[in-house]
UniProtKB/TrEMBL annotation:
Molecular functions per Gene Ontology: protein phosphatase regulator activity
Annotated family: Belongs to the PPP4R2 family.
InterPro entries in the record: PPP4R2
Protein name: Uncharacterized protein
Highest taxon of source: Eukaryota
Pfam families with a match to the protein in the record: PPP4R2
Record GO cellular component, one term: protein phosphatase 4 complex
Amino acid sequence: MEPKPEFAKDEVKGLLESIASTGKFWLDWDKLKSMLSFQLKQVLSEYPEAKMTAEQQNASLGGTFEDLVKRLDEELHAFIEGPPFTLQRICEIILAARSIYPNLSKLALALEKVWKIETSSW
């Protein structure tokens, strides 16, 4: 499941690096959210679990890779009014995912934790 290139990879990476280092962004939230979604799907697809059989994915992830991607993307898109205050940390996680999180389930847990911090603080 290779994400379709809606944006230039370098453009997205540069933007996320800027947000990760400064916490500031200048794009409309909907466009930024689309770029985050694009990069998230790209990063997720780079993990070995993405290439496993559905049976192996169920054993490793507790579901299929497609289900995991859909769930994480839906959680990101649940922020309708604007970006989460944890946006800077989300960018850091997405940018350094492979070096910090050895497998996909650990990355998913980290992202879900950051999103839950956001929703529980309301």
